[in-house]
Amino acid sequence: MNPRERFEELWTAFLEGELDPELMVELQSLLEDQELLGEAADSYRMHRLLGVAGGKSDAADSFVGDVMSSLPRESGDFVDGVMQSVKADEPVPVIRRNILLSRLPILLATAAAILVGCFIVFQPVSDEITIVELGGEVTLTGDSGQMVEDLSAGYRFDGGTLESSSADAWVRLRFADASTVTLSGRSLATISQEGQKLLNLRHGNLSADVSPQSQDAPMLINTPSAELEVVGTQFNVGADAARTRLVVNEGMVTLTRHSDGRSADVPANHQLAATTVTADELNVAERPSALATWRANPGSDVVYGEWISSYEGFVGELKQAVANGEMTKEEAFAKLDEFSRDESSGSLFALPWFKAGGRKKEESDKKYGVQLAIVSIAGATTAPVSGSDDAVLRVLGRAYSDCEVVVGLSANNLNGGFAGKFETHRELEADPAGDRRFVLEIPLADFRDGSQTPIGLELVEWWILTTDIETKLEIFEIELVNPVQP
Amino acid sequence: MAEIPTINDQQLNDAVALVQDGDSSAYEVVVRRFEKTVRTWLAVHSPPGVDVDEIAQRSFVAAFSRIDEFRAGTNFGAWLTTIARYQLKTETTRLRRIADYHTRYAPDLLSRELELRSESSNENESVRLEHLKACLGQTGEHLLRFVRWRYEEEIPLQEMANRCERSVAAVKKQLWKIRRMLHQCVESRMDSGDSSRLANGGTP
Lengths: 486, 204
Hints:
The structure holds 2 protein chains of 2 kinds. Chain A is α+β, with helices and mostly antiparallel strands. Chain A contains 9 helices and 26 strands. Chain B is built from 9 helices and no strands. Chains A and B meet through helix 1, helix 2, helix 3, helix 4 and strand 1 of A and helix 2, helix 3, helix 4, helix 5 and helix 6 of B.
């Protein structure tokens, strides 16, 4: 049987749901042939179209009914419902007409009070926050403590804590006044509206496009180290426990440092990095031109993972050698004295991280583990980093077993706003003779979010994750190289 | 639920305006006008594992929630399909995330291929569906019965094999050939210039 015949056999079995997992592996290798993949897609689309053509004739009515019953209720619907209820409950027997007439002002006043009450109760509905788009793992814990994990576009809420927990996660919100806020990467923010928009960004990356706010009630964004006051602008913020990085693209944002109360106005095309250290100046600087190259310093730029310096690693090796009886303590100390205590060199180890969803369909409510490491790009440089068509991301590391990894980049538009999450898959076949080291050289054009690439965008974060938890992954170097850099 | 036989552009525009003014019941006209278009588009572009009707429903609800963003005079169908495309993308990303690598890889390659096609094509899958029906009308009964068994009656392959007194492998082969033949027939019709119908309002 030639490969085409074999493909036809396996593909038909796949469409019929009869393909065993081991044969799936064989099918996957066949589908790497673009021509066969194209035929598979044609066949699949025809298969689905035939399903539609053969569908039941009453499906449309059922579908329309389902949609109409799923529409979010508006305050107007509620008031109408109350009105209908009031009318239905209003007995108007002729014999009691005079009594009713005598009580009419009271009834009208009561109905008016109910309506006013309804209006007040439902006033926040008009201030609801809507999830416009999202991807990756995002959860919302509402004000009442209810956790919502199956969020989807169109979901509305009044306030609560949003967490985007996976490296590829992002969520875009829209407020009633059309202001939008996007959280991306591993970020945690509490959002409330008590007369003004209040966001508490505990950590992570946030991009906002804020409609003009009242001077008396500006949007306030609190990070662990600073407060941002916004009356209408476009800006990006990155925050961790010690730093707040603010880039303003339009308008003006006032940043006030918590530790000493000092403030600085950051105008358009300017940026400011504020630490909690009061001795550090609040230097507002013009946004520099984009850098075409970048080299990570995993020691200080780690968002997720464990950084172990070469020195710490060497200490561990010596302890192990002493424990194994391979050398004495004295010999170990002597070796240590000879070792350069350079804390800037070392390794970033990916750490376990548990994704939602089990390995089998029936285990969709369970979690399974992978190894994950995330490094900040934007937090490490004062200038934006942006790669050209020829740019290549180079990763040097060690994989303790052959595995597949997903390498990703998070990006913003250079002139502001979240742009997307881009990723690519790679097989790691580490050379045992080379201490299981690997070198990945990935053209920037290979990173994809649909058909989009991160070329020309500001790179904000880099991540790598394995497809299982057993694979140990160690990263030595990450850099963006650009062969045509002037 | 009352059947609305044909909804023209004026009726659609009026319904959208009513919904924008707060009359949510008018949205039924919008859903009826586009349910087939959206469900067909999603059926053709969704990878295995996606509940097409659920995504279609989410798309309509999302469009309702954002109805104030729709600008009168622009193509509502295109706007709705963009929302459906994002909803599908969200769902496929979620499925990729929760699926085990070895069980998802082949569908994932297919999913990416379908995603690329959906982004590079503005074809109306409802038109393609009409062409398919015409092609089925020209298909001989000896082949059409397989389509009927598989896609209308949804009987198992073994039952199909028993009915036609052939092996299951032969039935699978037959289904492969029929799908390929119908694909060629539909593409031929799509290429033959009947694309004027693509300009019909509400096309994705």
